[in-house]
Every structure is written in C-alpha cells, then in structure tokens.
Amino acid sequence: MPLWEVIAKTGDISKAYPDELLSIEDYTGGAISAGNTINKANVHKVKALLDPVQYKQISEMGRELKVVDTTTDIMQLAPWEYTEATLRNRGLATFAKDGNVVTKQGKPWIGGNPFPDAKSALEIFAGITLSWGRHDVSFYATKEYDLDAQGNVAYNYESCWVEMSPVGRVSMEPKPYLPGHEDKLRYQSVFFVSPNDIKGTSFLNIWHYDQNRFPDLYGYIPAFKRVRRFPTNQRFEPLIPGSTMYLSDAWGAGDPFLTWGNYKIVHRGPALAAVSRNWSGNNENWEHSTHGGENGNTFWDTEVELVPEAIVVEAEPIMYPRAPVTKKQVWFDARTLLPLSMVSFDQQGKIYRSFDAAYSLYEKGDNKFMDGKHPYWSWTRVHAHNIQTNRMTRLEQVKEISGGYKTSVNQEGIYDKYLTRSALQRLGR
C-alpha cells in the first residue's frame, strides 16, 4: 500500500515496505543484527546505507554506531500534534505563483507537513523549511564542543536556541496563525551564556513567509553594547569562534528554500540513521557519551536503525554568489521527511562539510520529559564536521545550562522574552 495510506489507517509503516527493508539482519543476510555495533571491521557491509562522510568517519576515524531495530510506529518519529496535523491537512497544500506554499485558498500554511507524500525534491525541502523543530515553540538549552584537527576541545559554549512559528501552529492558541504575524514564517534566536568572554552575544533571525526573501538578521555584541543588523546573504560562516556550524546548516535547510534551486532527487533507498531511542534520560542533565578520534571524544555515542526508505535531495545555492559551496545533498527519511544528514561540496566539487543529527522521543524507562499529553520529541545531538580541516562541532540538547536556562516546549511568553530586538539588548546586558 502507498505509505501515507498505511499511516492514515494504522499509524504503522510495516505494510508499506517488504521485510528486508524493515530488518537490518534481513538486509545484510545476517551479517549485522540489532544489538551489534558497526565499526571499522564491518562497515563495508553497510556502506550503501551511509553518507560518504559517515563512512569515512567509521572506516578511518574510529566512529562506531550501535544498531537498534527499526521503528515502525509513526508517532515515535515526530511530535504527536505535528503528525496529527499532517494527516488532517494532507492534500490541502499547493505552490503559489511566486513559489511559496499556500493552502488551496491562497493563505499561509495551516500546520503539519504540507507534502507528506512528496512527489518532488522541492516539496521535500519546502516541508522541512516551513517547520524545523515541528513544534510551535522550541527552547533548546544546548552545549557546544568545538574540536580542533587533533581532537582537542578548543572551545566550549553554552547557549539557548529558540524557535517560534507564527503560522502553521498546531498546539498553541491561537491556531493556525498568530494575529499580526501572518507574513512571517519563523522567529529564531540564539544567545550565549558561557564562557564569560562571549556571554551576552546574541543573534535574532526574522524569517519572512516569502521564501524569495532573505531573513532579517540582528546581533548584539557586548563589546559594542548595541544591536546591529548583519548581512544575511552571508550564511556560510560561523557566528562564533571555533564553530564549524553555519546558519545555513540548521536542520539541513537553514535558508529560505527559494534562495536555493536546481532541486533534484539523486537517490532513493534504505539508510542507517538515528531517528529514535537517542535520549540520555538516565543522565540527570541528559548529557551524552563520546568516543572515537585521537582523544576518544570526537563522536557522540549514537543508536541507529535501518530506515526503509531515504530520499537524497541535491540543491544549489543560486542566490548566494559568494557561497563556498556549489551544492549540498540532504538525506531525508521518506516516512517523515525528517533530514537525517547533509553533505556539502566546495568550489572544486570536493566533499567539504557534513551535518548529521540524532532524534528521539524523550522517554526512557520510567523517565519522561513531557510535551503536554505526550512525551517530547526532538533532536538530541548533532555533528557538524569540516572534513577538509578535520574540525568538528558537537552539539547536544541538555536539560539545563548555566543561568538556570532549561529546555522547554510550547512555553508561553517566549516571543517577548527572546525574539525581539529589545530582547536581544536585554539578554546582552
């Protein structure tokens, strides 16, 4: 049966795929099973299931992946309300003449993924760009570790990353739009709370609903004691020293989707990815263990599973003439259209950088972190690897960081506290 017909009837994806795509043991002919570890000795058996940077990390740098069985319950692979909205609003989205996603009545999108059974690369990218974290409001308390080429932690940051969707709202009132903000797609800020030499540094991205326009980017640098506007077409450089993360990297879709072009699907097939069971809830602050590299701390410990169908989309930065990348390829889970990993290529066409994430319900044994009536679903940790310089940025979502800032979801009052220019100045002080 077609995938989303199966999901609509049962919520279980099993009947949409043959058995050999639902079991890593069947796929590998018994060579690898759930509970095994993928490492340098056996990674060649699953090379086709990994992006080229992940394969290099495992075969040459000591990265390992623990294998778990394939998740078939769709409600474990995204936030509950987002998935319900996707099912409820399926078939109601279209593209306007200017390329933006609208309802059949020409209004901004109303929630969930607009194209869950996407037929084109553009539909896939539109879906992830419209809602990164798949919640109306997300407040991530994060720890960042920036490693040099020798695997030493050169920089260590604590920050808060905040996202709010004024359209396509599925959980918080008013729904589906925040009155007076219907022309905006996203308010997103990041502010740093440690170490002291960067404390107070903050940035605010205001995204227009029109995906032909660059976001407005504002920043507060404590040394200048004022909010200033930054050029936002320069999205391919780190915001802070030591980091290998760019604004463009976020969720594999950090730019308005119409500022990229020449979208095409370049591959379909199974993949290994960290789409569930990656929350360290037994650790009081949700922190994660590391391994690999010269000092044993280059990579997060990660649980992966066989994703029965991944779609690899290629795109080019057509509105960024000074971009250091010529194209990117992003792996998406066909069931949820969640970005699994990204590889970008430099001006010579060589592999340049990669980005891969782990996701999970925040539920482990008796430990749960709730999103209203249901366990919270989100990303748990990220690798951003410059393969040419061998510098690595590791990010993790934790329970709490310095200053008492805690991860939360769909919290009231976030806009005034963190998502305005005056909020930037207040946070900086």
What does this structure look like?
InterPro entries: DUF1329. This is DUF1329 domain-containing protein. It comes from Paraglaciecola agarilytica NO2. It holds the Pfam family DUF1329. With 429 residues, this protein is mainly beta. The chain has a domain at 133-428: Lipoprotein localisation LolA/LolB/LppX (outer membrane lipoprotein receptor (LolB), chain A), CATH 2.50.20. Helix content is 13%, strand content 35%. The chain has helices at residues 3-10, 24-27, 52-61, 80-88, 121-130, 414-418, 421-428; strands at residues 37-38, 65-67, 93-95, 101-103, 137-147, 153-164, 184-194, 202-208, 216-221, 226-230, 261-273, 290-291, 299-300, 303-316, 327-333, 338-345, 351-361, 363-364, 367-368, 370-371, 374-375, 377-386, 391-398, 400-401, 405-406, 408-409. The strands form six sheets. It has a 16-stranded mixed β-sheet that branches. A two-stranded antiparallel sheet has the order 3-4. β7 and β8 (202-208) form a beta hairpin. It is globular and about 60 Å long. 49% of the residues are buried. The model has no long low-confidence stretch (mean pLDDT 96).
List keywords for this structure.
429 residues; single chain; outer membrane lipoprotein receptor (LolB), chain A; two-stranded antiparallel sheet; DUF1329 domain-containing protein; mainly beta
